Automatic annotation (TrEMBL):
Superkingdom of this protein's organism: Bacteria
Entries under InterPro entries matching the protein: AAA_14 (IPR041682), P-loop_NTPase (IPR027417)
A Pfam family assignment: AAA_14
Name recorded for this polypeptide: AAA family ATPase
Domain AAA: 40-162
Length: 502
């Protein structure tokens, strides 16, 4: 364990360059904690790798600007809570303690309460902790740190914040979003697998290892005993993306022959021209392709339903995924992770000997599938961000809708809590406006079935797409740019209702 205070603070790596970084939106919560009178609580910053935890602490340390009253502590593997207490006791002249990588402490989950009970409550010290093992913080908050800590979770980076911090656009966010780096974590399958292993799977295993009590592994115990738990959790993540990709491929091959797929691609600027092909729908081919995409992992075949359920629970605790209620849908909070794995699966499909197409045709098919994948991920991005937006949720309830016959759907539904009126959305990864995009929104039977199901009235319809927001309507619905909606959701949902009322 090493610590810095007084003149040695300037030796902290990266401190000199920290002014060059913009501040995350949660920074004001940290400032409030420091500026308010002692509340007898500590502050916990937790999240996956590369989401700005240490930078947040260094930015706050810089703002305090009093090196004699500040101590920065970095924990290392093998350290324990007693080592931390020794450093705190030796530096009680300091008012502010920053403890980085605190989840590396072997007994952090079981002994962390002393930081609040003794140093914050009795000595009135402000303690800000950060750690990569998000699950460790989550478990500690339920037990040792219950009612003793404020929590800031950095894993989820909404598009508006991503755009502000990095200056990158929505297309980049779809493909690489999820960390505050150059996107290299999700640049290829190898990097993505490494990130999933270290930032997610080992995060879970390390936190459970440090619980120190028998039986905490539950249904995952057998995987831990065989040294397979990290691999198992990694495969659960891959299973989600495989199912996602299979759903998209299945839908395309069920509803289109290849010629129509190419016409679709030209219409949406995915490919430039259509060759004179006449390849018809082929059910046997579709089944073979679905089989090719299936994940064949012995660990998953051996797993009990309870083991899979527990792994999913931990992924939710980490904010890696959202299991959408009343559906089979799984939303990844880091879109780049989902896109990278899905794109790798399309690459496998493109190179398979199953497809009776030329190299050029395979490339065109791949572009169509990747565009659909981006569209579904864009839908997930919007749904998840709206679900996390406090102001939006004060006024609206979110949902999704499919007709009983599954021939009509609304990608996202927003129902006003007081008026019980609804705005329905279609999400498209396209900058073009095509009437086909509005087929569900303008389907009277689909609208009536939804209104009866939700006991509501539709007062706004919108296509959310990659183009510019229109002042008026097109094809009798509102067209809203996805970037505009993600930056000001309440404004554009309310505007859709106002436009339809005119």
């Amino acid at each position: 364990m090493e610590f810095f205070t007084g003149d040695t603070l300037k030796n902290i790596p990266r401190l000199q360059e920290i002014d060059a970084y913009k501040k995350r939106f949660c920074f004001d919560q940290l400032k409030d904690y420091i500026s308010k009178p002692n509340t007898r609580k500590i502050m916990s910053i937790y999240g996956l790798r590369r989401t700005g935890k240490t930078v947040l602490m260094l930015q706050l340390l810089n703002e305090i600007g009093d090196s004699e009253k500040t101590c920065f502590i970095r924990c290392e593997k093998g350290d324990g809570i007693q080592d931390l207490k020794n450093v705190l006791n030796d530096n009680l002249k300091c008012d502010y303690f920053f403890v980085d990588e605190v989840t590396k402490l072997e007994d952090f989950i079981e002994c962390s309460s002393i930081l609040a009970d003794k140093y914050s409550e009795l000595y009135a010290k402000k303690i800000i902790m950060a750690g990569t093992d998000s699950l460790g913080f989550y478990l500690a908050k339920k037990d040792e740190l219950y009612d003793r800590t404020y929590m800031i979770h950095t894993t989820y980076i909404p598009y508006k914040e991503y755009n502000y911090l990095l200056g990158k656009g929505l297309e980049d966010y779809i493909m690489y979003g999820g960390t505050l780096t150059d996107g290299s974590e999700f640049y290829n399958k190898e990097n993505c697998d490494e990130y999933t292993n270290t930032a997610i799977a080992r995060n879970i295993q390390h936190s459970l290892d440090n619980l120190g009590r028998d039986g905490e592994y539950g249904a995952l115990a057998s995987f831990r005993e065989k040294g397979e738990m990290t691999t198992f959790i990694n495969k659960i993540v891959e299973l989600y993306t495989r199912r996602f990709t299979m759903e998209i491929v299945n839908k395309k091959f069920k509803t289109h022959d290849f010629l129509n797929l190419k016409k679709y691609a030209v219409r949406h600027d995915i490919v430039e021209d259509v060759a004179p092909l006449d390849t018809r729908k082929n059910e046997a081919l579709r089944q073979e392709i679905m089989s090719e995409l299936e994940i064949r992992e012995p660990l998953l075949n051996q797993a009990t339903e309870k083991a899979v359920s527990e792994a999913k629970k931990y992924l939710e605790m980490l904010d890696v995924v959202l299991l959408v209620p009343n559906t089979d849908e799984v939303i990844f909070t880091q879109p780049g992770l989902k896109y990278c794995q899905a794109a790798a699966q399309v690459e496998v499909l493109k190179s398979t000997s199953l497809l009776p197409y030329s190299v050029t045709e395979r490339e065109e098919l791949s572009k169509v599938l990747l565009n659909d994948i981006k569209g579904r991920i864009l839908e997930d991005i919007i749904f998840y961000q709206l679900s996390k937006d406090v102001d939006f949720n004060r006024d609206y309830v979110l949902d999704k809708f499919k007709t009983a016959a599954a021939d009509g759907e609304f990608d996202i539904v927003c129902i006003h809590r007081r008026s019980n009126e609804a705005v329905v959305m279609e999400v498209k990864h396209s900058a073009k406006r095509v009437e086909q995009q509005t087929r569900h929104l303008n389907n009277a039977q689909c609208c009536q079935e939804f209104e009866a199901w939700a006991h509501t009235k539709i007062t706004g319809k919108m296509v959310v797409y990659m183009g510019e927001t229109l002042d008026g309507k097109c094809f009798n619905v509102n067209y809203v740019g996805a970037e505009d909606l993600l930056k000001s959701p309440l404004k554009y949902v309310e505007r859709a209702q106002e436009n339809d009322e005119r």
